[in-house]
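Translate sequence into structure tokens.
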Amino acid sequence: MKTVIYALINDKAYTWHLTLDVRADMAYWFGEHPNSLKIWVLEPAVSFGQALMLTAKLKEMQKSTKHAKDCSPELLLKTIYQQAERLDIPLARRAGSHQGLLLECDSLQWEGYRQTAEGSVTVRQDELDGLISILQGRSLLVEETNQLMEHHALQEAMKDPLLYVQMGYLQGKLQLSQGISLHYKRTFPSLNHKPVYECRRCGADAKQMVMTDCLFCGTSCPYCEQCLTMGRSRFCSVLVSVPANQHMDQEMGSKEEEHDLQRYIEPWGLSNVQAEASYLALTFLKGNEWERGAEFKYHNKPQQFLIWAVTGAGKTEMIFPMIQYMLSRGKCVVIATPRRDVVLELRPRLEKAFAPLPVVTLYGGSEQRWDTGTLTIATTHQLLRFERAFDLVIIDEIDAFPYHNSPMLEYAARKVCTIGGVTLLLSATPPRQLQRAAERGRLPHVKVAARYHRHPLPVPVLLPTPSLSQQQKRAAIPHSLHDKLSISLNRGAQIFIFVPKIQLIEPFVRLLRRIFPGIVIQGTSSKDEQRAQKVIDFRNTSIRMLVTTTILERGVTIAKSDVYIMDADAQLFDSASLVQMAGRAGRSADDPAGLVFFAAKERTREQVEAVRQIKAMNALARKKGYLRSKGEQSP
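Result follows.
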């Protein structure tokens, strides 16, 4: 996008500004000071990225000047040229007069212009206030801002979107920033200043930038390839948001009176184990809120709290008290999860739990894409369109794809939390760096070492077997595996069989069907269009054995199930995924001791680590008295 730079001149003093629509600036300045101002507009317009850098440099230079300078056009042009050259911004010089490069406008000219059809356009304050309201917590490209206006039926603002955005910027209620920022870093040993680009939306560095001849600004302009699916973020793109200090002003109100935290836990029917974890997390929330409320100071970054809960512990139910606590204070909450299907699964549960409060759900293709609410469920990618929007950010399955090992999504999660807000991390298998931070006291956390039914986690058994490829070549499975599968079938269990590669599914399904001819056996993967129906049939016991990849390692609960992980020594299966797959067994109070087998040719460090983690959680649960004593009846 091209942008105009101008100097605002008043009594021999001047200040530098940029504008997306000069009509807004003239209406703003001449409306405030109709007779004492002049505006010198620089032509031609430049890239928004260049304009932002140049005006920042001009303002910086002006602050360092103790006395007011001569405001002659010649001096202004000379100043602009000097700073543009230092920033490598090409401005076409013209011989002779300054006319044609600096255009003067005063109040009389403005009054004449206002009589024309183009100049008669005005900004309706009610629609501008509406725009600022719906932009709260969002960070959007101009094109997306237009879609937001359309969704909320801001009819007048839609006619001149840049006019309204610029007026909001002049009033200090909107913030304009580049899609991609540029700074210079000194390199060694040459000590040259190297340009460094960074995407403000997703945090990508120069490695994800692509240089092109831009049609929008007419320069060589980089765009970000990492978040391209969310719209093209360029050096000349404008990101529109509400300044962070306005969020602070809204949050800083009066100090909340003391509340009994148990009132937020009791309505949800949590087990003792779940209730203890929720209470500790609530205590952290309240302590964090009191600290910033009492001192009126904000942390430099959002605070984090980890709920490290075993698979099947009921993490979703545990977060309800924290959600209720924040909503009761008028705060905004988002639950971010890696997958769209989890968003759709959580929506009815949250709508029922927090009725009549509307729940906004955001994912690719969501009809609520531009809706705003105090309780939001979103895929992690959708967080890229927000900034300082939520007081409580709950990141579910932090160890799962695509969030795990994605700097872009970690950046997005940090960016959406308000200054002084809290990020609640949920995981059964936190990444090792978080585990170390928790164990060394650097990350506040709680460990939930037992499931709601208070039975120990099934401990995997290492089962030596030939590799799957060898079994398929021999057209037979080993006797040890046959015997274990027969035990599972005889006890009436549903059988998960996990394999590391999609291409191994169908051959192994055919082999198992030949060996167990009376049993319904199916296979599924991420490429299977019938996956959802097969999971339903598996849950309803219409399918007894389901051969699958790690696509079903999370989020699927079967009342009575056993787990077999084939080729458990495969490189794809790290300790976290092995623990997650093992966690499909023993989730029901009616069958808490499901069977888990790591079937592999070799015993690996990852298998041993997975078993160690499960045993460690059982030991912790036993030490804390979470586990049910012998003879004690199940709930």
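Note: The longest strand covers residues 417-427.
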